[in-house]
Amino acid sequence: MYQDQIHIPLIIKYPGAVRKGVVEETASLVDVAPTVLETLGIPVPKDLPGLSLLQSAPGGDRLVISESFPNGLMTKLHPRFRRTERAAYSGALKLITSTAGKRELYRFADDPSEGHDLYHAGEQAGGIIETRLAAWTEAAQRAAKSRTGSGRPNKEAL
Question: Which one of 6, 57, 96, 103 is most buried, counting C-beta atoms within 10 A?
Fold first, then answer.
């Protein structure tokens, strides 16, 4: 969940493009669909997750999530790979959590190489991000169960 593992540059180029720009704000794959729709001049549905990267920076309290799940081959190699890790970005802060209990907090402006862990139990900024991440994780799990509860998509998902 460190930047050298998960930071992936995104370059979008389409025929006849004249608009150029660089987005420094943390973005997510959910931002691609709204960006494409806006580029094509198609209204972005209000309930579509993500934000168009053509808009100005969304602000510091947006939560962007990155996840890493256990892989069958890796879990056979060593038990330490039997964990889910998540990184939650909010403004200049990044919280890394693991189902194995790991918690780390970094401030990008001061520590872009993530060398100085600021997390300690009871720390307010990390605790707020952790609470938001837990709420997001719970909502995602509920949504997944509602779509696949019986192994088939539910009527709402169709």
Answer: 96
